[in-house]
């Protein structure tokens, strides 16, 4: 499966509608050296940069849940948006 940054970002946003709800800045790029996709979420001074292994990204696109990504993104949203005061709807 051939992935693009745009298609993977769209899938991540579908999986986590909170990204748009809380107006998080999100970007995806591919790191050739790590052979992994890099997801960056930013809200004010808070930032999450995490990687998605190539195989995990392909599974995500096929509708299989990404456990590592779910934990990372979920924790960021929970800490800074749901339990914190950094995000407004």
Explain the overall architecture.
The protein has helices spanning 5-15, 18-21, 54-61, 67-82, and strands at 25-31, 36-43, 46-53. The termini are far apart. A three-stranded antiparallel β-sheet has the order 1-2-3. With 89 residues, the chain is α+β, with helices and mostly antiparallel strands. It is built from four helices and three strands. The chain has one domain. Helices cover 44% and strands 26% of the residues.
Describe the biggest sheet? 3 strands, antiparallel
As a percent range, the share of helical residues equals 40-55%
Strand content: 25-35%
Structural category is alpha+beta
> Care to count the β-strands?
3
Helix/strand order? HHEEEHH
Number of helices: 4
Mean pLDDT: 87
Radius of gyration: 13 Å
Which spans of ≥5 residues are poorly predicted at pLDDT below 50? none
Strands of the largest sheet, in order across it? Answer: 1-2-3
* Count of spatially separate domains: 1
User: What does the overall shape look like?
Assistant: globular
Distance between the termini: 35 Å
Please describe the topology of this protein:
Blueprint: H1 5-15, H2 18-21, E1 25-31, E2 36-43, E3 46-53, H3 54-61, H4 67-82
Antiparallel strand pairs: 1-2, 2-3
Task: Based on the model shown, name its key terms.
single chain; 89 residues; alpha+beta; 26% strand; globular
In short:
The protein has 89 residues and is an alpha+beta fold. The chain has 4 helices and 3 strands; from the N terminus they run ααβββαα.
């Amino acid at each position: 499966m051939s992935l693009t940054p745009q298609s993977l970002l769209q899938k991540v946003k579908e999986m986590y509608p909170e990204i748009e709800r809380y107006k998080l800045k999100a970007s995806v790029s591919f790191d050739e050296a790590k052979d992994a996709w890099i997801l960056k979420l930013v809200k004010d001074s808070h930032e999450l940069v995490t990687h998605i292994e190539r195989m995990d990204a392909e599974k995500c696109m096929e509708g299989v849940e990404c456990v590592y990504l779910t934990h990372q993104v979920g924790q960021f949203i929970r800490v800074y948006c749901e339990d914190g005061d950094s995000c407004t709807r």
